[in-house]
């Protein structure tokens, strides 16, 4: 996840192109959500209820959250076991991504 501000707009699919064009012309980094799967942070998105996410999305979010936590704390703990766990989780996440192709 990034610390940069991003404009997030929810709109009907029919209005997608004009809204993106207007936001880009304004020089804003934006993400337009017309359907739940359009949200890059779907499991964390305030506009989406957890029950709208399928089981695969919930597992993917849990893996990403665990990997992010291990990455953020790796300098504090300097544990080979935790580093190994992070690498195994990254491999599992990668295999899930490959299954999506």
What would you say this structure looks like, in words?
By secondary structure, this protein is mostly helical. Helices cover 53% and strands 8% of the residues. It has a two-stranded parallel ribbon with strand order 1-2. The protein starts with 6 loop residues before the first strand and ends with a helix.
Give a concise summary.
The protein has helices at residues 16-25, 55-77, 80-100, and strands at 7-10, 30-33.
Largest sheet: 2 strands, parallel
Taking the alpha carbons of the first and last residues, their distance comes to 23 Å
Strand order of the largest sheet: 1-2
- Structural class based on helices, strands and sheet pairing: mainly alpha
Q: Which ranges are low-confidence, i.e. pLDDT below 50, for 5 or more consecutive residues?
A: none
Secondary-structure element sequence?
EHEHH
Features:
single chain, 101 residues, mainly alpha, two-stranded parallel sheet, 53% helix
Secondary structure: elements and pairs:
Blueprint: E1 7-10, H1 16-25, E2 30-33, H2 55-77, H3 80-100
Parallel strand pairs: 1-2
Helix pairs in contact: 2-3
């Amino acid at each position: 996840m990034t610390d940069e501000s991003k404009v997030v707009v929810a709109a009907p699919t029919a209005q997608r192109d004009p809204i993106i064009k207007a936001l880009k012309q304004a020089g804003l980094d934006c993400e337009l959500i017309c359907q739940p799967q359009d949200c890059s942070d779907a499991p964390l998105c305030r506009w989406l209820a957890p029950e709208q996410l399928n089981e695969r999305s919930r597992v993917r979010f849990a893996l990403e959250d665990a990997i992010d936590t291990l990455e953020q704390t790796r300098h504090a703990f300097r544990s080979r076991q935790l580093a190994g766990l992070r690498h195994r989780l990254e491999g599992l996440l990668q295999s899930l991504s490959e299954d999506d192709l």
